[in-house]
Amino acid sequence: MFKGFRGACFYKVGHLGLIGMVVSERRLLVRFFQIGSVLALAGSIHVLTLLLPWYTVRADSVSTSVLSGYLLPETLALSVAGGVLAGLSLLVTSFSQRPMAVRTVLVVLSLLGGVLAMVSPLYLGLVRVPALSVAGEPGIGFFIALFSAIVILALGGVALMTRPRVVEIPYQGYGGVSGATVSSTQPMETTSFEVAGEVEEGVVCPICYTSVEAENAVRCSSCGVVFHSGCLDAYVNINGTCPNCGRAVV
């Protein structure tokens, strides 16, 4: 395995015919941090709903009572546990630098937190209120608590589906040209790279697919394509050619 630049990782696949590149681990960590931030927000909102009226019960046609989430020890414990688990995901994304480990912990915390947060209002509405043998109707806190629990579960699904993107780049370091014999004495076209100087806004490196800044940009003297200097160094060290035009680098 060959370590590249800007979080890229090169490895040989498919009978040495292609090189795969796991694109931008940094971007993956940023995405997980964003998911963790929203999870923490949803968990905080869920805990705050404990202060709102979850249910209004009527003992008779005259008297009514308002049940808030914090009044019952079961709903209080379930909601706080669910909100805390969702909030811990932000700490994980802040301190870990391993994308797959962050992804696993995010999924586990969000699913556990979401299930606990979901059970809390459902337990009140489907178990405790019917046990009182009184009529009642859910309040605004009940619906917000339920919605925030759904958001936590949905974010867990988003984290589960977020994976590194693999790009296949032709690998020319092994094998020959199919259907033809190339003479060892046949000269190969060469190229060189130079500092790009100015780079137009929006230019993307063909290797890592992230934007190129002028301070770390190099340009192929043959095809004129701009690359990150680090990405190009990693590619040339393996292949010895320009990733775009295929000419040997001298």
TrEMBL record:
<keyword id="KW-1133">Transmembrane helix</keyword>
<dbReference type="InterPro" id="IPR001841">
    <property type="entry name" value="Znf_RING"/>
</dbReference>
<keyword id="KW-0472">Membrane</keyword>
<feature type="transmembrane region" description="Helical">
    <location>
        <begin position="139"/>
        <end position="161"/>
    </location>
</feature>
<dbReference type="InterPro" id="IPR013083">
    <property type="entry name" value="Znf_RING/FYVE/PHD"/>
</dbReference>
<feature type="transmembrane region" description="Helical">
    <location>
        <begin position="28"/>
        <end position="55"/>
    </location>
</feature>
<feature type="domain" description="RING-type">
    <location>
        <begin position="205"/>
        <end position="245"/>
    </location>
</feature>
<protein>
    <recommendedName>
        <fullName>RING-type domain-containing protein</fullName>
    </recommendedName>
</protein>
<feature type="transmembrane region" description="Helical">
    <location>
        <begin position="75"/>
        <end position="93"/>
    </location>
</feature>
<keyword id="KW-0812">Transmembrane</keyword>
<dbReference type="Pfam" id="PF13639">
    <property type="entry name" value="zf-RING_2"/>
</dbReference>
<feature type="transmembrane region" description="Helical">
    <location>
        <begin position="105"/>
        <end position="127"/>
    </location>
</feature>
